[in-house]
Amino acid sequence: MDLIANYGLFLAKIVTVVAAIGILVTIIVNVAGRKRHQRGELRLTNLSEQYQEMQEEMQVARLDGHQQKLWHKTQKKKHKLEAKQAKARAKRGETVISDKPTLYVLDFKGSMDAHEVTSLREEITAVLAVVKPEDEVLLRLESPGGVVHGYGLAASQLQRLRESKVRLTVAVDKVAASGGYMMACVADKIVAAPFSIIGSIGVVAQVPNFHRLLKRNDIDVELHTAGQYKRTLTLFGENTEQGREKFREDLNETHLLFKQFVHDMRPSLDIDSVATGEHWYGTQALEKGLIDAVSTSDDLLIGLMKNHDVINVHYTRRKKMMDRFTGSAANSLDNLLLRWWQRGEKPLL
What we know:
The protein is an alpha/beta fold and about 350 residues long. The chain has helices spanning about 1-35, 45-60, 65-90, 115-130, 150-165, 180-185, 210-215, 240-265, 270-275, 280-290, 295-305, 320-345, and strands at about 40-45, 100-110, 135-145, 165-175, 190, 195-200, 280, 295, 310-315.
């Protein structure tokens, strides 16, 4: 029995030492990773090369087995020669620059709080650091809108391109509504898929009130403010008609600012006829002047690849374990809110 107890104690000590070493190594790796990824990572993907490779794969798939072998043999020789030439140029200190203009492709899939603007600002800063007068930017946008200040900042980031005279095209495949359209209208050109949802130039807010429930249970909630309109509506106290009126005034003022912003970005738009809070499908939005062309982002990109080098720019920041968990929960909530909005605001197919 003593032998078993001693063996168990010895095993426990070994496990403790191994666990301590594991924890120490994890801490060192995390500290090193935090320093290395403190600013995040900018990833560049050559979409022109990806499309060309896909095109070649489809063409080769149509050849018979013998022709495929010959093609692969030819390609291997070609790549070997290109690598040799590139190495020789590098030794001579030569730099090969394409004579085509560059199309920088950004992606923005917006949530309710528009936290994706953190990556967008880094991507735009990176583009502005190297962009040439003939270069362009394409933003693939998907967002049903959200908080005013978040989407206001996102639209301001896109204005940086406009102020720098960089041509900006926004492509909408699914939805650019409310704050999403606030971003889209900054572009020189808006392209949307036929059944994408566009518009919803309006402001909405709703506040639940539990005052009567609390009153029935003899629960008092005290709210103290300094300033007449520091709090107009409250969750737990008794709301007044004066507070409701002020709340509606604030909504109307925000709507006026929204309308003015869209009008400034697209002066030819009849703003009063479209700033009703309604949304339209892509083909209808074209008739209203909310967009400039009906197309998918894929067709738009393939067309631009003929005369541009197409580079996707994506900024990512390494997330901590807790951020990954909370971020996943937030995304689930966003998706739930989006489904509710879709069911309430548009018919289901």
